[in-house]
Each structure stands twice: as structure tokens, then as C-alpha cells.
Design a protein that fits this description.
199 residues, alpha/beta, binds guanosine-5'-diphosphate, Rossmann fold, 7-stranded mixed sheet
Amino acid sequence: MSIPVNPEFKNMQFLLAAPNRAALPPPDCAEVAFAGRSNAGKSSALNAICERRNLARTSKTPGRTQAINFFQHGNSRLADLPGYGFARVPAGMKAAWQVLIEHYLTKRECLRGVILVMDARRPLTDFDRQLLAWGTTCELTFHLLLTKADKLSRNQQHNTLRMVRKQAAPHTAQMFSAIRTIGLEEARAQIAAWLGLQA
Ligand code: GDP
């Protein structure tokens, strides 16, 4: 039997896209951010968690990927950070991305935690490691979502999760699939706990 989705997730609405810090919404809601490499499966994960087909766009347009997209329901907000490692983005835009993300991740007092989405077949890329190491020194809390788990055997899932948990401690990690709906409840429970919602 599947547990009903918390309405806070299902009723999330697109709030705004912030291309720079001046456009950020006021920090008046509990926020959870989604970060990850382009193509890791971040948008699909966000849509699956909210049980919505098109909340976060899965299509790649460099312009859109440079903004932080906010979704809100009640006093809960999700922030979809631009995917990093997007090859076609010019160097100047990468620098702007870094400035915005660094500002957001270090100065956002209402940020409760970061869901770091990684392809379970290629977890902990150099950039993932840098973000984790840097974020840890800034006292950010991460939960690692190893998505596309459907592409791994049970045994591979088990071994990968064990390796990632060991390397990413004290941060937490789980297997996930947006297609086979693996790990949905676990991910929702983590986000709900950060947002102060009843699971
Ligand atoms: P984003 O760039 O991180 O937002 O990635 P997307 O959500 O757009 O997904 C990138 C690609 O991975 C798309 O082709 C998706 O269909 C695919 N994908 C996303 N999640 C899963 C998953 O859980 N399992 C599988 N097999 N493919 C996935």
C-alpha cells in the first residue's frame, strides 16, 4: 500500500525564477534546495517527489538552467538550483552561476537542507565532492539522492550506497528512481522533516 503524498508536496506551485540575488523571494519560508549535475535526474526527482508531471522542467535550456526556480505551498518552499557542469554554458555564465549559488547556499537563513541528486551509476563526481566539502565547512546539511537506481542491480545498489554513505558521512544517502519509484517515501520523509511538516 502506498502512503498518500503529503499535500504540501502535491500542491507545490511555481513561484518565481531568480536569475540573481535581488530576485530571490524573501526568506520567510522553510526551504529545501535541490542541487546536482545537469542530466543527473534532478528535475525528474523533484517531479516524482511532488507527484507532478511537469513541475520542474526536464528539458534543457541553458537560459533557464541559470536561475534558481522556487516552488511553494503554504510555508514550504523548494528551490531548484541550476544544474552544474552544463558544457554549453559560456565561462562567464558559469561564474555568474557560482556567485548566485554561493550567495544562496551561504546566506540563506531559511535553508534547512540540500538534496544533492547524483546518477547512481556515477556518484560523487569531482564537482559533487567539491560541493559537499565546501558545503560542509559552511555547515550545510546534505541528503544524497542516488537516482536512476533502476539502472543498477540490487547488488550494485547495495554496494554503491554503502560506498557513498561511507565517503559522504555525516551526510545521509539513499537509492532513488523517478521511473520505478524507488525511495520516494524516504526522500519525502527527509524533506518533510527539514521543512517541519508531518510525514
Ligand atoms: P536534470 O538535468 O538533472 O534535471 O535531469 P532530468 O530530470 O531532465 O533527467 C535527465 C535524463 O535522465 C532524462 O532523459 C530522464 O528521462 C532520465 N532520468 C531521470 N530520472 C531517471 C530515473 O530515475 N531512471 C532512469 N532510468 N532515467 C531517469
